[in-house]
Amino acid sequence: MSAALAFRAGTLAFWLAVLALWWAAPPIGDAPSVPIDDVPPGPISEVPSAPAGEAGAPAPAASTATFTLAEVAAHARADDCWMAIAGEVYDITAYVERHPSEPELLLPWCGREATEAYRTKTRGRPHSARADGLLVQYRIGTLRGP
Ligand code: HEM
Fold first, then answer.
1. Which of 71, 75, 104, 115 is the right S-S partner for 67, CB 3.0 to 4.6 Å?
2. Per residue in 14-44, is it b (16+ CB within 10 Å) or e — as a string?
3. Would you say the CB of residue 115 lies under 6 angstroms from ligand 1?
4. Ligand 1 close to Cβ of residue 82 (< 6 A)
5. Closest ligand 1 atom to Cα of 131
6. Ligand 1: does its nearest atom lie under 6 Å from the Cβ of 27?
7. What pTM was computed for the model?
8. Residues 75, 111: contact at Cβ < 8 Å?
9. Whose CA is nearest to atom 13 of ligand 1?
């Protein structure tokens, strides 16, 4: 009888030991720990993107500067040429030499409100979409009154 008792006690001790080892050991397949400081907060879609332009128009550069016509007028030279076109101010100095018309047509508009001149090329026909795309690259701000 005591042998049977000893056998049961031994079996109990064995399973208790198995249980203790099972608790103590780390789970198999535990994910390796990654320092969470390296992970930027928020979903990836929150990464800032360029502001979208109006439908069909290229997005203008994001300058928030404003200029009066008097300030624009201080840049009325071939080597320092600003223009106000449709409420925006452009510094086209770098483009003056590349403009395909004779300089006499373009230069008088440096330092001035040139919306109509740009819209018609002073020849009754509009600039191309390519020209519009070039223009936005030279935007430096918005026109403010008076
Ligand atoms: C506001 C004064 C301006 C006037 C009077 C003017 C006038 C003209 C003229 C006469 C032509 C050549 C003839 C023609 O293609 O019909 C021309 C072509 C062109 N201009 Fe201007 N322009 C002006 C401003 C600008 C500006 C600010 C840009 C761009 C930054 C520009 C970009 C172009 C381009 C790319 C062409 C080639 C033809 C086209 O793509 O339409 N122009 N412009």
1. 71
2. eeeeeeeeeeeeeeeeeeeeeeeeeeeeeee
3. no
4. no
5. 35
6. no
7. 0.68
8. yes
9. 101
Residues sharing a CB contact under 8 Å with residue 7, sequence separation 6 or more, in sequence order = none
Q: How far is CA 47 from CA 21, 29, 42, 99, 144, in A?
A: 47, 33, 9, 37, 32
Contact between 82 and 111 under an 8 Å Cβ cutoff? The reply is: yes
Q: Is 89 in the pocket of ligand 1 (CB under 6 A)?
A: no
CB 126 within 8 A of CB 119: yes
- If you measure from the C-alpha of residue 121 to the centroid of ligand 1, how many angstroms do you get, rounded to a whole number? 6
Give me the number of domains the chain comprises.
Answer: 1
Q: Which two tokens stand for residue 109?
A: 């508009």
Token readout for 5 is 């008792």
Q: What are the 10-residue block averages of pLDDT along the chain, 146 residues in total?
A: 71 66 60 51 47 48 90 98 98 98 97 98 97 98 93
Q: Is residue 75 part of a domain?
A: yes
CATH number where 119 lies: 3.10.120.10
Name the H helices within the chain.
2-24, 69-73, 93-96, 103-106, 115-120, 129-136
